[in-house]
Every structure is written in C-alpha cells, then in structure tokens.
Amino acid sequence: MKVEREGQPxxxxxxxxxxxxxxxxxxxxxxxxxATFTFVLALIIGARRPRxxxxxxxxxxxxxxxxxxxxxxxxxxxxxxxxxxxxxxxFGSAAISTSSFGAISITFAIFFxxxxxxxxxxxxxxxxxxxxxxxxxxxxxxxVVYRPKQRVENxxxxxxxx
Length: 162
Prior knowledge:
Blueprint: E1 2-5, E2 8-11, H1 26-48, H2 53-71, H3 76-81, H4 85-99, H5 101-111, H6 120-146, H7 148-153
Antiparallel strand pairs: 1-2
Helix pairs in contact: 1-2, 2-4, 2-5, 4-6
C-alpha cells in the first residue's frame, strides 16, 4: 500500500487473513441474523399483499434496509465478487436499491398510511436527484467489487466505499 506521510511517499506491506463464516464475531452474526430476518419478513409482506402499493413499498424499504446491513459488514465486496453470475446480478439490484434508500424511505412515508402525492411532476422532483446520486454511488459500489485494485490506486477517499 502506498501512503503519503509528511509529504513523503511510503510503501507499506499489509497481509489480510482470509475470511470465512467461522471467523465471524458475535456482532457479525447478529447483523447477519437481523438482515436475514428483515429480508424474509419483507418477502412475506410483499407476497401477502402484492396489490397493495404501500405494502409493496414497505417491503421494498425493509429489503433495502436488510441489504444496507449486509453492505455495512466487512468482506461484502469479496463475497459479492465470488457469487455465481445470477446471484451477483440479484446482489447488484440490491446495491442499486441501497443507493436509493432515501427516496424509497420518502416514497414509503408518502404512501403510508394513505397516498399524499398524486402528481407525476412531484414524483419526478423526488426521484430525479436520488436517481442521479444513486447512479454515482452504484458505480462506486461496482468499482469496489469488480475493480478493487484500480479503486485503491485511484486514491479513493470516499468514506466507506474506499
């Protein structure tokens, strides 16, 4: 790893241990259990009320919350990178959803308990900035997963993505 300290470039060696489920600590298991429970509950709600828009959006919000828990855990990018293509595609859809967490939350608040906004222009004003921000964040997530060396070499200083 190359770092700059007091204006001088320094090269450091770093050895990372291979991770596995056996290495997961108590907090990691709690997060995994909470994410799994939340995701399964979201699927049940979505399946039980498929024609109810508030239930569908609520289920989407819950599933997104579950995936946000997964993306906040250590090693998620390596896990995603080694998934079969079909599962990686599903994981990618979840990544896009987590990037839109704000707009999904606002949408749920507008729909529940009753729909407050009916005009398409207002929906566009809510979702357009979020869609732009989500596309940038999703690109960052994909770079972390599929181009991790380039991400480090580009000296990313963008918080949890780097």
